[in-house]
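Feature request, filed as a ticket because there's no other form

It would be nice if the structure record came with a short human-readable summary line next to the tokens. Right now we just get the raw output. Example of a typical job, pasted below so the devs can see what we mean:
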Amino acid sequence: MKIFQLSFPWQTQDPFLFCVYHLDHYPKGNGALGPADSLEGRPLGNDFIGKDGWRMYHGTSIPGFPAHPHRGFETITIANKGFCDHSDSLGAAGRFGEGDVQWMTAGRGVQHSEMFPLLHTDRENTLELFQIWLNLPQKSKLVPPHFKMLWHEEIPIAKLQGATIKVIAGNYDDYKALPPAPDSWAADLDNDVAIWNIHIHANQSVKLPKAKHGTLRTIYFYEGNTLRIMDETVMPNHGIEADASKPMTIKGIAKDAYLLVLQGRPINEPVEKYGPFVMNSQKELEQAMDEFRLTQFGGWPWRYPDHVHDAERGRFAQYPDGNIIEK
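Raw output as currently delivered:
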């Protein structure tokens, strides 16, 4: 094992590019989906300081990330607490949260916004959210963009003695995840991609099965007291690069422990990144930037770059073909 301190964003291994954990204890809402508290003294548009336990990110009145482009990879957004309002250049939109997962393939190019509406005006609006970037191999870099929702009620959850495992991608024993986006590296089972959100009860343990040969596995311990793994003590806010070729038992000590596990067979291709673009060469990056300047990846069909949905709206997904699913 290699144990390391978690930073912002979290360190990842191929085929993952990026993972960030957002925990914001937002105050009551102001009725317009922003915070009722004062925004004075915040560097609006670039507020990552965590003042009073929450951030506005790139939002100026509502926290979140207004319209921005992506190309060449996928975003997987897990909203454990709170809500996220999605809008994109395909015409897709949605409000998801309280355990839902959104899987978006950027492929040849898409713009999207991710805003965090503060729906409750009578109580705090805690947000707990992961965003994971999963790379695409060269053959899939320019596939058509794709928008998919994995609703909390439909995601398999392994309820074990002493632990629960939310199976977002891959399989855990007999629990099989919902299908990922069709062009994803995770769509081929040979690539052994898994994303598990694990809750271990105090003084209980969970066993991670061995993976396929060559698979890389990283475990992120983001909340709890301590873990015990193979005679090693691991403190919270640490990650573990584990040998996935062997089964591993993890025990939570004294308090409940919360983990995120990312694993997969590496793509093993060159990676060139510039902001929201991930390609295989500098030339391909330059082409991506040129195409975005010329086409805006289809333009922005919404009135505002920080588009949000009506406060009364529940969880829903609107797909590019106009089909709407209400939850």
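Something like this underneath would help us a lot:
DSSP finds one helix and 26 strands in the chain.
Residues 53 and 93 are 28 Å apart (CA to CA).
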